[in-house]
Amino acid sequence: xxxxxxxxxxxxxxxxxxxxxxxxxxxxxxxxxxxxxxxxxxxxxxxxxxxxxxxxxxxxxxxxxxxxxxxxxxxxxxxxxxxxxxxxxxxxxxxxxxxxxxxxxxxxxxxxxxxxxxxxxxxxxxxxxxxxxxxxxxxxxxxxxxxxxxxxxxxxxxxxxxxxxxxxxxxxxxxxxxxxxxxxxxxxxxxxxxxxxxxxxxxxxxxxxxxxxxxxxxxxxxxxxxxxxxxxxxxxxxxxxxxxxxxxxxxxxxxxxxxxxxxxxxxxxxxxxxxxxxxxxxxxxxxxxxxxxxxxxxxxxxxxxxxx
Amino acid sequence: xxxxxxxxxxxxxxxxxxxxxxxxxxxxxxxxxxxxxxxxxxxxxxxxxxxxxxxxxxxxxxxxxxxxxxxxxxxxxxxxxxxxxxxxxxxxxxxxxxxxxxxxxxxxxxxxxxxxxxxxxxxxxxxxxxxxxxxxxxxxxxxxxxxxxxxxxxxxxxxxxxxxxxxxxxxxxxxxxxxxxxxxxxxxxxxxxxxxxxxxxxxxxxxxxxxxxxxxxxxxxxxxxxxxxxxxxxxxxxxxxxxxxxxxxxxxxxxxxxxxxxxxxxxxxxxxxxxxxxxxxxxxxxxxxxxxxxxxxxxxxxxxxxxxxxxxxxxxxxxxxxxxxxxxxxxxxxxxxxxxxxxxxxxxxxxxxxxxxxxxxxxxxxxxxxxxxxxxxxxxxxxxxxxxxxxxxxxxxxxxxxxxxxxxxxxxxxxxxxxxxxxxxxxxxxxxxxxxxxxxxxxxxxxxxxxxxxxxxxxxxxxxxxxxxxxxxxxxxxxxxxxxxxxxxxxxxxxxxxxxxxxxxxxxxxxxxxxxxxxxxxxxxxxxxxxxxxxxxxxxxxxxxxxxxxxxxxxxxxxxxxxxxxxxxxxxxxxxxxxxxxxxxxxxxxxxxxxxxxxxxxxxxxxxxxxxxxxxxxxxxxxxxxxxxxxxxxxxxxxxxxxxxx
Lengths: 308, 646
What we know:
The complex is a heterodimer of chains A (about 300) and B (about 650).
Chain A: H1 2-21, H2 25-37, H3 47-57, E1 60-63, H4 69-87, H5 102-122, H6 127-158, H7 163-168, H8 178-195, H9 214-217, H10 223-245, H11 255-279, H12 288-307
Chain B: H1 2-12, H2 16-20, H3 25-48, E1 54-56, E2 69-71, H4 73-97, H5 104-123, H6 127-145, H7 152-183, H8 199-216, H9 225-231, H10 234-244, H11 246-258, H12 264-286, H13 291-319, H14 322-357, H15 368-371, H16 373-386, H17 393-408, H18 418-443, H19 450-453, H20 460-478, H21 484-494, H22 503-506, H23 509-530, E3 535-539, H24 557-567, H25 569-572, E4 575-578, E5 591-594, H26 600-617, H27 626-645
Antiparallel strand pairs in B: 1-2, 4-5
Helix pairs in contact in B: 1-3, 1-5, 3-4, 3-5, 4-5, 4-10, 4-14, 4-20, 4-21, 5-6, 6-7, 7-8, 7-9, 8-11, 9-10, 9-13, 10-14, 11-13, 12-13, 12-18, 13-14, 13-17, 13-18, 14-16, 14-17, 14-20, 14-21, 16-18, 16-20, 17-18, 17-20, 18-24
């Protein structure tokens, strides 16, 4: 009894530590991969930690037009991301909070983060930020059905509505649903790139305000609010990345092996994102909806395959 | 029941003393309405908490049937929003309309009549009182819409409404006649098994769907709804959108409660209509730039969500899956309450904005969050809730319907409920976009006009009702286990799930509460962490180095929605006029774009215009001379005689 309680505590602590401390490493890895592939040495892998520490000490500048809503975006992104991170399993290591239907709450938490980010962008009254906000809501309207159709396929396959069972359940990984699963993961990979504002949908390093989506919405944040924005973005990489990784990770007999597997998997995902960003160019803005519809179709076909 | 009856009388007569008072008539009306609401809410909550179901039996001979009026859990579910919103609207009306001396008294009186009729209607379980309440509601709402009858827009809205509502009543006469011939009495009660599958049953369903759907504003029948909601005073819009259109849902819910074995296709039709209303409702809302019309289209969307839940429950009832019944019906009934709360809140907040700025056009507002902080917070709460975002109440009811739809995937050979899932996901994303647009254009940024720059916060009598509604939204969202037992009772009356699973066993409500509280806690900590930030001075918004930016350069509501409207132009058919700039020294060119209503502006309007043109060709028959008319009578009689002989 005490043994299991101890392992449960360790598992909780590891989950929380991973959730709180690991995220800034992912953008660092991605940037390192991009730099190496481009023949540069690039910033250190821990650069985002240094940036966050610096921003936490800096003063913030607020625009004259802003109200308290301006702060709701950064706060909401981090709060929703952390709560969503408690519901998603990190590999086969157990989930702190899992219940029937948490999958919908999970998806809607990201909706909440997006809503508040869009509002804080509109709070500045800048036409650039309005433009980014408009693009964000338009593209997310297409990303949402892809995510939900993927959930529907996995719910049908695992007859469960809880993220941990759907992603790691006994049926997942068996031969019958291998085909649909691949399609779901393709659809979700597109959602992952869109939600995290990565190439080919959006370029996190662009310097032209007119062409940005996510970055332009946070132009006016500085100091601690900016630190929260950056941290929230990396948190989203971790949590949505876990969604992609979980069905692929094999179950190991020992808990430490499972943890190691997850961390390594996360590293591989970061490298993969870095590779995609190095090898592809950004889509023209008018091409992005087609890319997202491809994601919807992939998830929809996955569901169809499960019916036959 | 006596308590409830007293509440109806108090509410109905709340405007009467004001007729004879020179001043403070509004206060008296609000006090009476508030007292009635407290009594009515007590009676309704007592029934939902497990108290006895009360009925009224009159001694008079023709009416001496049991079940003239019944306060059962279904009635109680609908009575709660009626009383809550009436009291809030009456209090709001004190400051909102009482300076209009010419019709303030009429408005108060008729608002009381509307609230009373609604409260009477929800407990009616006999055809006669039901139609009495129905007509009382329809006529008093007509008078309320015509409050500003000097405006042609209000007159037009009023007439369209009157025609629509009576067309609906006509269908209800037919429906009740079928019920009478099937059961032999006018008491609206359970029908025998197998009736629904007969052709009479089909006719009953179609008539009810038409009559009640017209009132609820289901998508192809919604033509009266947007203009009516826009033209009426805001607290009346709140009443109409919050509770009056729900009476159409009440009718459908009652119909489903009479039928023990609804055919499968009923559920499919309800789900299909729900998806249509939901998606098109929010899509048309995106194209609006009149704040109140936008909210009105969102009512259509939410009626769609309610129908999705009802359809899912009906599917469960016809195939004997109690889980689907509980989740579908509970989701629909909770969404009825939720929608009345947040839509009432949104209309009241929108009313404050319209009151302060003097226009309903989104493009002439902006930056009101600074000048009207409380109204802004209220509107934000409403937007948050209506977009179905956690941790407010809108999420809870949509969550139930989602869960039912996911469960249904495992029950049937074909994935019927995939319609519900994709529709809800799409509606959620688009509603969020639409409310980001509305809230952003009205309250955020800097003022686009002088009126928006000098707006003032509303008085307390308008803010308190909004506060109450917002608080209830938050309570239901954070502690949904409070309403779960009440929903179980209502579902047991509605479905065939005696001994079925309870809501609290199907969904993990404490889990939701824990996560919601956790999120609030994290957000509070982060807020504390941000607060002591030393302000590095305030500067203008970063505008890429352009030094002379002005408020008109902000992104407008129309541009914000343009990406989505352009993507949906194959259903929306947006119209735009002007805007082409030419020449080396272009002059100012006006540009306007709008999204007309598909049914009213593109179908009904041209059809009826052509009909009335055709009818005017027959006008020569009406000369106004008596002897010619006598000749017509003679000719008709002769023709009839010949026809009879032949």
